[in-house]
Amino acid sequence: MKEALLGSNISAGSGFEEGTSCSADSETSFDKAELQHVERSAWVVTGEYALAALLAITFMYILAFSHTSHTQFSAGNQHTKHWWKARHDVPGWAEQHQQYVAEAIAASQSSAFQLDFYGDAVVEAWRGTQHGEPHSRCQDAPDIFHAHFGREFESHAWGVAGDAAQHLMWRLRHGEGLASEGPQLAVLMVGSTDLTYASFKDDEHIDNVANTTANRIHAVAEYLSDLRPQSQVLLVGLLPRGDLTLSSDQHLAQPSKFTPAIASINSDLQQLAASRQDMRFVNCGQDFTYQGETGRIHAALMPDGVNLNAAGMEQLASCLDPVVHDVAKQLEAAGEAHKHLKQ
Predict the structure, then answer these.
(1) Contact at 8 Å (CB) between 214 and 75?
(2) What is the dihedral of CA 101, 103, 106, 107, to 10 degrees?
């Protein structure tokens, strides 16, 4: 009986001890499993957040890139904020720009009829300078400019030799493009230098940039038009040019490697002017060539086939003069200019 009871107690005790021991192991195993589950859950949640953040960043990048691609790199779109830029290749360019800004500020306070020429070397030549310094080739140009455009109008020549359309747009957006109290006629002569830069790459590239150059000139013209809604913009076609890489007896020959691009750009400018009431187009190129067996540029007007001498500047002024005065009369008839013309 005692043995049976003792056996029962031992058995019960053993059962209790085994049960206790087994329960402790289960709790320990549960704690470890729960901890591992929590750790796994934390990693899962962290990974999910990280993945979501990565996807969000990727989506934003794709969205931004697609927007940039659409606005900045689409064919023919030259109205983005990135295509114009300043020049750093010519000493004194910034100082020359600041001088023009000061002149533009002074002109903006005048009520006289403003005749403003914008462009590259041809426009700067009206000042008698090249890169801001007096130049013998254009020493008579200021007198020619005044004779044709300075007697009736308050006229300005804001050009820089070697400027392409992108450089002119930068200058306009940084102080040179100001509206005055009186009516204005902006004469735009730019684009030839764009073809020069293209030729540095290869001849084929000249034709490839014709559309881009035309679009950029469009953008400059539209910028001036928006700036001066009561005024006019006169688009001057690119003049013919020779090929300085050829021998002295061939560099004036026409057509040159630039001729197709020039024709394409001029055609585009003419179409733009025809579609706008605030723009006019004039092409003076025919005055600078004569037809022989192959055609040539007049050496007496453009000796190197690119830059105009004094006779060439006179010829250009004579071509522009009647158009400028015709536009001025139109503005006068519209009531915009009659009281502003100089007496």
Answers:
(1) no
(2) -110
**By the 8 A CB rule, do 19 and 13 touch?**
no
Do 262 and 194 touch, CB atoms closer than 8 A?
A: no
- Reduced to 3 states (helix: H, G, I; strand: E, B; else coil), residue 236 is strand
> How many residues can be counted in the chain?
343
Q: Exposed (0-12), middle (13-18) or buried (19+): which is 270, by Cβ within 10 Å?
A: middle
- For the segment 227-254, what is each residue's pLDDT rounded down to a tens digit? 887 789 999 999 999 999 999 889 999 9
Of 190, 198, 131, which Cα lies nearest the Cα of 166? Answer: 190
Task: Return the amino acid letter for 24.
Answer: A
Q: Among 296, 301, 198, 184, which residue's Cα sits nearest to residue 250?
A: 296
Tally the C-alpha atoms within 13 A of residue 120's C-alpha that lie toward its C-beta. Answer: 22
3-state secondary structure of 229: coil
Residue reference for tokens 């010519």: 90
Summarize the chain as % helix, strand, coil (round to 5): 55, 10, 35
Distance CA 136, CA 234 (A): 28
The SS3 of residue 277 is coil
Listing DSSP states for 106-174 in one string gives: HHHT--SPEEEEEESHHHHHTTTEETTEE-GGGTTHHHHHIIIIITTSEEEEEE-TT--HHHHHHHIII
- Structure confidence by residue, pLDDT tens digits, 39-67: 555 444 455 555 555 555 544 444 443 33
In a 13 Å sphere around the CA of 319, the CA atoms on its Cβ side amount to 20
CA distance 82 to 77: 11
User: Which bin fits 246, alpha (ψ -120 to 50), beta or left (φ > 0)?
Assistant: beta
